[in-house]
Predict the 3D structure of the following.
Amino acid sequence: MDMKFIDGYPEYMRQSIKKVEATREKRISLDMEPMSAEEREEVLSTYHPDYVKGGKRSLKVGASKGEMVHHETANILEARPQVNPDEIDLGCINRDVDILIIGGGGAGTVAALHAVYEGILPEDILITTKLRHGDANSMMAQGGIQAADGLDDDPSIHFLDAIGGGHFANKPDLVKALVMDAPRIIDWHQRLGVMYEREDDGHFVERPGGGTSRPRLHSAKDYTGMEIMRVIRDEARNLGLEVEEFSPAVELLTDGDTVTGAILMDLETREYSIIRAKSVILTTGGFGRLHIQGYPTTNHYGATADGLVLAYHVGARITDMDSAQYHPTGAAYPEPILGQLITEKVRGMGAMPVNIDGEAFVYPLEPRDVESASFIRECKTRGKGIETPTGMLGVWLDSPMIEEIHGPGTIKKELIAMWRMEHQFGIDMSQDPILVYPTLHYQNGGVEIDVDGWTGVPGLYAGGEVAGGVHGKNRLMGNSLLDYNVFGRRSGISAARHAKKASPGKITFDHVIRFNSLLDEAGIDTERRSPMLLPDYRGERAIARALNISI
Amino acid sequence: MGKNKISVYIMGKEHRVPEGLTIMKALEYAGYRLIRGCGCRAGFCGACATIYRKKGDYKLYTALACQTTAENGMYLTQLPFIPANKSEYDLEKIRAGPNTILSIYPEVARCVACNTCTKACPQDIQVMDYIQAVKRGDITRAADLSFNCLQCGLCTARCPAEIKQYHVAQLARRLHGRYLAIKSEPLSKRISELEEGCFENEIDEMIELKPEDLRKRYFEREIKVSE
């Protein structure tokens, strides 16, 4: 049956859009209250995907044995290491460096720059990355970066917002480092030439995000992550930092206890190369492409949690890996952009979530987990979602409100990436609302680190999404760009200081042999190998992801 | 998702794929496991620059594979790498003068204003206009006009004057951000406060609070987000 489309939407969805338009005026002046602690608790425990029964299991092996993690995470942590120690000759070292940085996104680049500032020569640092330099979630972050530099704000307020948003599970010393370093990070960016939005007097434009009690998001249109990433990448190139692209690390090397290097694999030629290093920093990002619980994701193609696996093999602990962030506003329609991110800045600027009847049903700026759970409740239990032609459900995000509040043309000026994405597929979000549903967005937990980015394993540091503890059970908007800058910097400095004292170590696969025997002892009989490196979307899988999501 | 299938030609070879997929998903449906030419999959990284032609049409079109719907009769080629030279510079040692960019990228002067770069841009950036702004020494205009650049390199691949537009634009934006934007006063003030050790005690005090007291403080905190 042929469906009739009007400006990007099938005719039947237009009936609901009419209702959204009819209530818009009233909703603009509607003053909504955030939920109480009890209401939050209830909506989370009943509707948030992390609380769904049967989605997790307890780890049977390793330093965090007994921790609950999603099945998809357990599957890669309890898999056989990719490399077979019997098949690789470690006698021939391809390269000796002071610092090896695994992961060429934001955290890795910041770590490299700060290692240079700390006195390590660029030629003694190697960044290795799975795809290209800058291919990372860092590039995709849209809305902004938090820093309490506003007149009516300060780092202690930022601290309280972050720790409450994380359900008080965050490691307080890490949160302190995060919020206290934040203004200095913005200052560093300012000196590197990042083009943050400013008022005429040079003050930064600061906007609120979900769970923030003050406006403190610094943004560069809705390309904030891209703007920061391309600037720091340009700076890395100017300093002559070398990046080995299309060369993921497939295993770390140790002298038994201390991390002494890594083995890389060229993704195209499948050749291995052996890198010996005095310090190793993991900056590999998160796990979105594991599609936790079958969800579509906003994440980069390479987000397969490789660093988490490598760290686990050498005995690092993990924390808060029972918690995934589902961004409330993933695109639910049209199909080609399903799961892609609609930045929180859209809500920050006034767009309200609305149901099929045009009713507001949740305070628009709850922390992300609460907001997501409310969307799921609206669709699943209350039956007030809008169904797409492929059977997905979603709620409206009433984007034309932004134009009503801030004036015509605001969307094309400040949300150009969003406008372009929708427009490519026939929708004008300055005229019509857009359809959204939660999408897998962020790995809240990760490898345990201290304030110096040290993992507890000698020689091994971590920063950015691969590391955990900073965000507890839920990260606030704008704290991930901040996280990778703060802990990328701290891990780079720590790794540099360590490298200055250390001498090149013995390189062995002893930890791999040890991990394999742990798997044997635990009776884990599996063909799975890990790290995964890339997801596989060939054939029907190219579309399956869009259709089999259960809601 | 339509049930109908369409024909796309991947580097000349015909494949049947469902209607409604992006070019990137069409490549995957056809059996390719992408290594090159695939990055963020959401229009932010510029990894999936694509050149294509349509059946019966002589024109070469450009697009991002993840942001463009595959059409029947498309002849597709991925362009995963552009070997354009980036000049190295020390931002602290240069200044935002009218000839700064021209001295670092002298080939900008070769621009013949053919507008091919603008037509090639999948982000609809007025590429030629910002190159002209650079020639006039108007760094701020070049920075603003080029802001949405994903550095996919399609402009450079098509430029008959062999200008590296996207590298030139990067320099313009950094010069603007570093030297021409007015610095934030509240930020400088906050940094001095941090250097004096402010906020340490307030945060340490919260760290010492009993969990129930910290919760209470959080849920009772004042929320001031309206502009």
